[in-house]
Amino acid sequence: DFNFSLMPYNDEYKLHRRVFMGILGPGSVQKFNRIQEYASRKLLRRLLNDPEDFVDHLRLYVHINHILADE
Hints:
Layout: H1 11-24, H2 29-49, H3 54-69
């Protein structure tokens, strides 16, 4: 397990923080926001057309968010 918040402040800490901020920093929010908007629209359209398959639609929503966030 890894928890860089408990690391001593040194060069290794700075490296981990830089990587972390590159992935989840303020500039990254816009990237994830677009992904969530796309997946949300897709989910809502599917729910309107076929509400009985709610669980399948939710699974697709989670997968879309996961896959596109990794790109």
